[in-house]
């Protein structure tokens, strides 16, 4: 995150702070700057891709499903925008440790002898590492002692739209993001690659809420997509995974998506022909 902070300093913040003679390495300046960047960045990484997904990918006929709440899109956006500022607080704290040099993030691709091969390896291991731990964190959030206090709100959106992607309790959101933050403190990771992955995981989170159920046949056994995650919203105790189906299969929580059996929320709407559909009963 120091890359973003350095760019913001050069583009704008140096001029702002010059009036107060506060140097770049001042910890309070860094905290305020990062908190501002995280809030603005979090808002933009949510609202722009989710809006594009909603307008160009999401089939609006989903909105005729009886499990869609009244004014659901507005409620999803309101909930997400109310959570982002709270999620920014612990996120900023983690980024501060990165900026102050406590992580294993590095600048030069060729710092390691394998160069770009090392970067490719980091991308693969980052995805695998985070997929594993998000599965178990997400599954833990469904425990009866925790669910109603933290994760239940995200399941209000039984037929989600792309705007539901970030519409969860702040504690829920930060807990599921923890593996992304933990990885660069345990393993070397190229800084620009980390930024790329940070954007990627936000886009992926939106994509599994977009109601686009098609997956290339060769990837169906492996990739956890919107069809899987829609069933998670409908049936609660299945398909906890983020990127892949591996841990759901290991944890015996895998469910073949209803969409692949011709029973997606959209298919239900279309089968009824009048814009109404029979609702799923949660298991």
Write the layout of secondary structure elements.
Layout: H1 2-18, H2 27-56, H3 72-99, E1 105-106, H4 116-141, H5 147-150, H6 170-186, E2 189-190, H7 191-207, H8 226-235, H9 246-250, H10 265-272
Parallel strand pairs: 1-2
Helix pairs in contact: 1-2, 2-3, 2-7, 3-6, 4-6
Plain-language structure description:
- With 283 residues, the chain is mainly alpha-helical.
- The protein contains ten helices and two strands; from the N terminus they run αααβαααβαααα.
- It has helices at 2-18, 27-56, 72-99, 116-141, 147-150, 170-186, 191-207, 226-235, 246-250, 265-272; strands spanning 105-106, 189-190.
- It has a two-stranded parallel ribbon with strand order 1-2.
- It is globular and about 65 Å long.
- Mean pLDDT is 94; it is low at 279-283.
């Amino acid at each position: 995150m120091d890359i973003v902070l350095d760019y913001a300093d050069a583009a704008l913040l140096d001029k702002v702070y010059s009036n107060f003679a506060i140097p770049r390495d001042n910890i309070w300046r860094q905290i305020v700057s990062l908190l501002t960047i995280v809030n603005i960045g979090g808002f933009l990484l949510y609202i722009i891709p989710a809006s594009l997904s909603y307008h160009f990918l999401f089939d609006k006929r989903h909105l005729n499903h009886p499990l869609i709440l009244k004014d659901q899109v507005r409620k999803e956006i309101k909930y997400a925008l109310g959570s982002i500022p709270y999620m920014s607080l612990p996120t900023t704290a983690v980024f501060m440790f990165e900026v102050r040099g406590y992580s294993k993030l590095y600048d030069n691709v060729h710092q390691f002898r394998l160069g770009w091969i090392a970067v490719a390896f980091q991308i693969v291991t980052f995805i695998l590492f985070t997929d594993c731990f998000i599965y178990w964190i997400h599954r833990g959030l469904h425990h009866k002692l925790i669910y109603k206090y933290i994760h239940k709100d995200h399941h209000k959106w039984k037929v989600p739209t792309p705007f539901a992607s970030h519409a969860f309790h702040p504690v829920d959101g930060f807990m599921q993001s923890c593996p992304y933050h933990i990885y660069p403190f345990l393993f070397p990771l190229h800084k620009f690659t980390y930024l790329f992955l940070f954007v990627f995981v936000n886009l992926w989170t939106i994509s599994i809420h977009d109601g686009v159920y098609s997956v290339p046949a060769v990837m169906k056994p492996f990739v956890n997509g919107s069809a899987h995650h829609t069933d998670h919203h409908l049936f609660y105790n299945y398909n906890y995974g983020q990127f892949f189906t591996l841990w759901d299969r290991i944890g015996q929580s895998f469910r073949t998506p209803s969409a692949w059996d011709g029973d997606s929320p959209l298919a239900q709407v279309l089968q009824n022909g009048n814009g109404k559909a029979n609702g799923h009963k949660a298991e």
